[in-house]
Design brief:
The protein is mainly alpha-helical and 237 residues long. Helices cover 63% and strands 5% of the residues. Helix 7 crosses helix 8. The radius of gyration is 20 Å and the shape is globular. The relative contact order is 0.13.
Length: 237
């Protein structure tokens, strides 16, 4: 990004990496524990049954921002934190998500106890998805992918594309560069979001914590590669 002149986007991505480090380290730790259990043929103690359920991901949970938000003591500060935290929802719980659920015939079932905790340290149950006639498991993966996709996370990735959009606006070509860059930026965000969501969901369902981590990593690579491939085919620099 820096070599391409996207210093602000690089700084934003670096900041997100630092903020997310505690949760990322826990993910790696769980993946290592899972791998060790597989090698020693022992049962891995998961927070819930990954094969049957999928909990809602969070932009804040487990991050340095989470730690900072927990330490706010003033009543006004807590109210602000509550408002911010209430906005931390997944695509599954948005209007678009509810529309897609209805289209695919996905219904919410019973709640099941888990060891996943929210901002205030309270255990959050996971909810069953009831799906009929799921060809190749695509409906199930779509539901899981939506639960794994944070709206704020998508918004942040979109914000990383803003410097490129501003740079394209400076070119005097009647907005052509801005239109092309808008399409490219949309592909970048969609590629990473869809790749991480689906491959992470598939890995998590089949192979638990280890599969989830590897799936997300592979999803990023596939998403970025797909976006670049489409961009090279349809757009010229």
């Amino acid at each position: 990004m820096i070599r391409q002149g996207d210093g602000l986007a690089a700084a934003g991505l670096a900041a997100l990496t630092v903020v997310s480090l505690p949760e990322d380290c826990r993910d790696v730790r769980d993946a290592c524990k899972h791998s060790s259990c597989l090698i020693r043929r022992k049962k891995f103690k998961a927070p819930y049954d990954f094969a049957k359920y999928q909990h809602d991901f969070s932009f804040f949970r487990g991050t340095l921002l989470h730690e900072g938000m927990k330490r706010i003591k003033s009543e006004r500060g807590k109210r602000i934190v509550d408002k911010i935290y209430s906005a931390d929802k997944t695509v599954y719980n948005t209007r678009f998500g509810k529309w897609l659920k209805k289209l695919l015939g996905i219904k919410d079932g019973k709640f099941v106890q888990s060891h996943i905790k929210n901002l205030y340290g309270k255990e959050v149950p996971v909810q069953e998805m009831i799906i009929k006639k799921d060809f190749l498991g695509l409906k199930d993966l779509t539901g899981r992918a939506m639960k794994r996709t944070s709206v704020l996370g998508v918004a942040f990735m979109g914000a990383l594309e803003v410097p490129r959009l501003i740079k394209s606006l400076r070119k005097d070509d009647n907005g052509k560069s801005f239109g092309i860059q808008t399409a490219k930026s949309t592909l970048n965000v969609l590629g990473i979001t869809v790749g991480m969501g689906y491959l992470g969901a598939l890995g998590g369902k089949k192979f638990g914590a280890l599969g989830s981590l590897l799936g997300m990593g592979l999803g990023v690579l596939c998403g970025v590669s797909s976006a670049k491939c489409i961009q090279k085919k349809f757009f010229k620099d």
